[in-house]
Amino acid sequence: MNEQGTPEGALKRSPSSELQIPPEILYQIFLRAIPPSFLLDPWQLTSQFAWCMTQRQKRSIVGVCRTWYSVGITLLYEDICIRRVEQLVCLRNTLRGASHSLGSLIKTLNVGCMIKGQVDVDFSELLQDVFDLCPALSTFSFTSVWSLPFPDTILPLPCLITHLNLENPTLTYETMIGALSQTAHNLISLWLHVPEHWLEPAPSNHHFIFPRLKSFCCRISENTQLMLSNVISPNWTMDCLCQLTLIGEGFWDERAPMLTPFFISHGKGLKYLSIDTTICSASNAFCPIAPLLTHCPVLEHLVLGRLGSCAHPNVKWLDQWNDALANSGTQSQLGLEEWVQKFAMPSLQGIRFLSTYGTYRYISDFPIMVPPATVTGNFESFAINAFDKKLIHEYKTVKIEGQRGMIGCG
To answer: Residue 206 and residue 195: Cα distance in Å, rounded?
Structure first.
């Protein structure tokens, strides 16, 4: 890229203009030529993985001609992932030096790098500079696994952020509170990791009103799930909440009832509920979340790791993380679906079995991004190639295959 944000060696002629393809059609063509983001893992470091290959594909598009550049530059800049802190500095300098507003193209920014070296003291200022140059930014993720240079660093988030991911497990409770204070009014989706160090000392109560929040994803453990009931439930107002994802660590067979206060407060409007597969031990035939479902009267889409004795009168779609059934014959799948529909979920329209293999297992909203009604028969099955992996969505099953067979979780 030169100072104007134009790829070096970009063609000046525009041969594609002779075809008279409207820019909006070209954009849709390019969009379908690029793998969806949930199949891409930007933290894989080798250049032969799908994320790196996708970036090269985007750069190739903008280097063809003026027409392709004017259309493809949006795809190149709309989703930015920072894997090294030097890239954040380069991004700021590029946006400042561009002859046209490249910053207005950026919609998503994911910072997952280690904050070290000379930028330690100025990290908040660096972020502030980038945010000021990105007026259309709507999604911000801080997914780094490393701690901030100063424990109580305040992330200077734009108030117009609508999708916020604070997956970093080292963030202090005060940093989280500061981030929500700036964004709560406009947030539509929120992703939190609740680490155990938030419990000592006991967190103070901060009341937040989320007038637009529809989706809440939270990673908790056996010890930190009390944060949901004792801190979040009585102090957070989420009247529009309709999608809830709980990602757990460890077995919650005896502790799940501790979440009852949270579900009493926030379960009445839930239409989608996802519970991580590790929430129940394999030896326990009773599903401990079953009593919680009584507080979700309008629930339509349920995602579980194991069915147990779970029942609900209004659930229409059930997704289950189950390797055996995702790869077994149709007969066993149909048998389980008939049993569930007859005895546990009379409104059920279908069950889908999701293989836990593949990186999408850790994408919390995958069952929403590819809804169960996408494939309602064998004739609607499809596959998406993403360089080193392939997503295969058949009737009632979803799985990912790699170049050397199934891609494992480890």
So the answer is: 18
Nearest Cα to Cα of residue 228 among 197, 274, 263, 252: 263
Q: Torsions phi, psi of 405, nearest 5? A: 95, -160
Structure tokens at 22: 């409207």
Structure token pair of residue 102: 């490249």
Nearest to 319 by CA among 287, 270, 366, 282: 366
Helix ranges (H only) for 63-148 are 66-77, 85-97, 123-132
CB 287 within 8 A of CB 258: no
Tell me which H or E stretch contains 303.
strand 301-304
Contact between 140 and 157 (Cβ < 8 Å): yes
Distance from C-alpha of 368 to C-alpha of 364, rounded to nearest angstrom: 9
Give the residue among 259, 258, 211 at the shortest CA–CA distance from 239.
211
Position of tokens 């909203």? 365
C-alpha 245/C-alpha 267 separation (Å) is 12
**Which DSSP state fits 307?**
-
> If you search the block for the tokens 């820019």, which residue do you land on?
23
Radius of gyration of the chain, Cα coordinates, nearest whole angstrom: 23
Query: Residue 36: how many CB atoms within 10 A of its CB?
Result: 15
Count CA atoms within 13 Å of residue 274 on its CB side: 23
Q: What is the spatial distance between Cα 99 and Cα 79, in angstroms, rounded to a whole number?
A: 20
Tell me how far CA of residue 277 lies from CA of 135, 250, 252, in angstroms.
39, 10, 11
Tens digits of residue pLDDT in 44-96: 666 667 778 888 889 998 888 888 888 889 889 999 998 888 888 899 999 98
- Give helix then strand counts, H and E, for the chain: 12, 17
The burial class, CB within 10 Å (0-12 / 13-18 / 19+), for 317 is buried
| Residue of 56, 55, 51, 52 lying closest to 39 (CA atoms) | 51
Tens of pLDDT, residue by residue over 231-260, are: 888 899 999 999 999 887 655 556 677 888
The pTM assigned to this predicted structure is 0.84
Q: Which residues pair with 391 in a beta bridge?
A: 384, 400
What CA–CA distance (Å, rounded) separates 181 from 173? Answer: 12
Residue 140 and residue 168 in contact, taking contact as beta carbons nearer than 8 Å: no
**DSSP 8-state code for residue 407:** P
Write the Ramachandran bin of 314: left for phi over 0, alpha for psi from -120 to 50, otherwise beta.
Answer: alpha
